Amino acid sequence: MVKNRNGLSLLFDYANVLVMALLTCAMLFPFLHMAAVSISDPGPVVAGRVALWPKGLNFDAYAAVFQDKRILIGYKNTLIYVVLGTTLSLFFSILGAYPLSRRNLVFGRTFMMLIVFTMLFSGGLIPTYLVIRSYGLLDTIWAMVLPGLVSPYYLIVMRTFFQGIPRELEESGKIDGLSDWMIMLRIVLPLSMPVLLTIGLFYAVGIWSNFFSALIFLRNEDLHPLQVMIRNIVMVGQVGDMTVSESVGGRPVVLESLKYAVILVGTLPILCVYPFIQKHFVQGVMIGSVKG
Question: pTM of the prediction?
Answer without folding.
Answer: 0.79
